[in-house]
Write a structure and sequence with these properties.
With 185 residues, the protein is an alpha+beta fold. The protein has a single domain, classed as Roll (ph1033 like fold). Strands 1, 2, 3, 4, 5, 6 and 7 form a seven-stranded mixed beta sheet that branches. β3 and β4 form a beta hairpin. The protein is globular, with a radius of gyration of 16 Å.
């Protein structure tokens, strides 16, 4: 069964969202050309060799007291990641392509994400960016029988709350209530 993650785009993460999700195609060239990112070049070699349209990069902070490390450790290929803006609307989604094998170092995290701590990074594929969305986090949460407030941090949906039928309803809700942005080549 795939995992499902709700990721709020906060004021602090909006710049990274724009760089690594919305406009990743441009940013990956900068990453590959930056001498500081020697160890990252290995991670991005596969992407640069192939068509990386629809791909992106994201990370969870590794701060104490959050569930981020546990979520990252549970994350599997093809898990679904849903991004919500400050107005609580779904603005994009993607599927996990690959997790980095290790935490990014503080230096790498600072170079990439402007974080002053190590982060738990992963590469996304099949990203859809929505230029129009009428899907709120609450709408999707209801399908999982969650009566949740907008999350301040990452939320992994408990797998006992859904099955294939619920996942199909999530996709149907998204397909009927969003308009995807063209991402070009």
């Amino acid at each position: 069964m795939i995992g499902i993650y709700f990721v709020p785009i906060t004021n602090g993460s909006k710049e990274n969202y724009n760089r690594y999700i919305k406009f990743f195609r441009k940013e990956i060239i900068n990453i590959l050309n930056n001498e500081k990112n020697v160890s990252l070049k290995k991670e991005f070699n596969e992407i640069s060799q192939n068509n990386y349209k629809g791909m992106g990069l994201w990370s969870f902070s590794n701060n104490q007291g959050s569930n981020n490390r546990s979520y990252w450790e549970q994350m599997k290929v093809n898990d679904l990641v849903l991004f919500f803006n400050r107005e609580e609307k779904l603005v994009s989604l993607g599927r996990v392509h690959r997790k980095f094998e290790e935490n990014l170092s503080v230096e790498e995290a600072e170079s990439l994400f402007n974080y002053d701590e190590a982060v738990l990074a992963f590469i996304l594929k099949d990203i859809a960016i929505f230029k129009e969305s009428h899907v709120l986090h609450y709408d999707i949460g209801k399908l999982f029988n969650y009566d949740i407030k907008f999350p301040r941090g990452v939320l992994k949906v408990s797998e006992h709350r859904y099955d294939e039928e619920i996942i199909n309803k999530v996709y149907e809700l998204i397909l009927l209530n969003t308009v995807e942005e063209s991402r070009g080549n």
